[in-house]
User: What shape does this take?
Amino acid sequence: MGRLRRVLVTGGAGFIGSHLVDELVGAGYEVTVLDSLEPQVHGPNPAPPPYLNPKARAVWADLAARPEVLDQLLPEVDAVVHLAAVVGVGQSMYEPTRYVRANTLGTAVLLERLIGRRDRIRKLVVASSMSVYGEGAYACPNCGPVYPRGRSEAQLAARDWEVRCPACAAVAEPRPTPEDKPLRPESVYAVTKRDQEELALTVGRAYRIPTVALRFFNVYGPRQALGNPYTGVAAIFSARLLNGWPPVVYEDGRQTRDFVHVRDVVRACRLALERDGADYEAVNVGTGRPVSVLEVASTLARALGRPLKAEIAGRYRAGDIRHCYADITRARRLLGYEPEVSFEAGMAEFAAWAAAQAAPDRWAEAAAELERQGLTR
Assistant: This one.
């Protein structure tokens, strides 16, 4: 495949998208941004963010509401990176129509337009999510490798937090989660991310449009929307700390995730664009290192100089999972991907950036809405 030169980035004014635009512009690509300037991310009176690369062309439109804009843009590019989505596990559980419209329908609209341009679109990269797995991979001390379903309501009500073997009920140990683990999404958001990747891969294979679905794990870094109470936990905790409040941790805080810096995620996107090894595949993008939610809270408190101990709620939210971190063997093999930003260095950089931002803390109102909806127990 010859070198791609013109790339459309949907969601290109967002957190990950804007970093990707910088990367591609710096590498000599002609970049077009398509973004709806979602108020939950960009504020109640959204305007183009000041950090958006001025060398990129920007078009402000909701592709699900105005699909005709794609008829203008797609003839001018030879690759698409589809990052546009609404994000948030808890919110998705009481606003399913919004999430399905933006994520599932939005992707279907894009794909329908891509089919008509399949003669010139030479690569599609779509952002999926670790949430498609539900619980991650585990090993039972008695039964070996297991892929348990979500914890039962009775188990969670008893505050028995750890995942148990479905065969013998022993506590199972988390293991790196590979791409061939069965997909068992536990939230509406997760279902729509599975929809996005499966729609894209299905259409890509049928029409021979080289397509890669990148399953991002927990992405953090500068430009994350600190005022969005449904964004990543690092941003939510930072907003709490900067406003003099302790981070609130659900369950016992020992649940683990894979926190990957946005620069590593952007590099994976570029590798997927430029290499063909992962075409028609789903690929994890993480670090392979599990970090507890309590460790994130304490690391940020130290980095921000706010010695506030996390408040452990001892409660749980519908749609949450216990452990999931990435097996990145496939990314290494097919893309030559290797994470470069350590958790410690990345969190220090993120904290330094966050400390200079206006950081409205909207966690309490989001928590109250989850409570009102009966999603916190």
In short: The longest strand covers residues 30-35. The chain has a mean pLDDT of 96. DSSP finds 13 helices and 16 strands in the chain. Residues 137-176 form one domain.
